[in-house]
Amino acid sequence: MIEVKTSKLSNGDLNRGVFATRDIAKGDLIHEAPVLPYPNEEHDHIEKTMLADYAFEYGANHTAFLLGYGMLFNHSYTPNATYDINFDNHTFDFYAYTDIAAGEEILINYNGDVDCDDPLWFYEEENKRASK
């Protein structure tokens, strides 16, 4: 149903994204990404690495890395997918928010809510560096 390919949207060095290999209907489960959680107090160590850009909030006391395709979905303020945290299964479950055509890149809103247009942390960091 999904594959990793080169993305024109990714700002990272790897330029990867997740793409549909077939049509996906709104509401369909796209991917269940296993969670690798760690306590929030350990995040200071992660902040010193490039992995900080790939961490997700995981409840009040933990942060997590997502395995599988979970960390490869790119951001959009008009996403075609969303995710729910499944604490019982220790997964992030990605769902089609709209119909997605075969070949289309699957995008999520990194703010966690499809309608949230708050500036993202890495855009804020870019703006700080540019103003120096």
Automatic annotation (TrEMBL):
Keyword entries, A-Z: Methyltransferase, Transferase
This entry's Gene Ontology molecular function terms read: histone H3K37 methyltransferase activity
The processes (GO biological process) annotated in the record are: methylation
What protein name applies here? Lysine methyltransferase
Give the InterPro entries listed for this entry.
Answer: SET7_MeTrfase, SET_dom, SET_dom_sf
UniProt keyword annotation of DNA damage present:
no
Domain named SET: residues: 1-111
Q: Which domain of life is it from?
A: Bacteria
Could you tell me which species this protein originates from?
Answer: Brevibacillus reuszeri
Q: Which Pfam families match?
A: SET
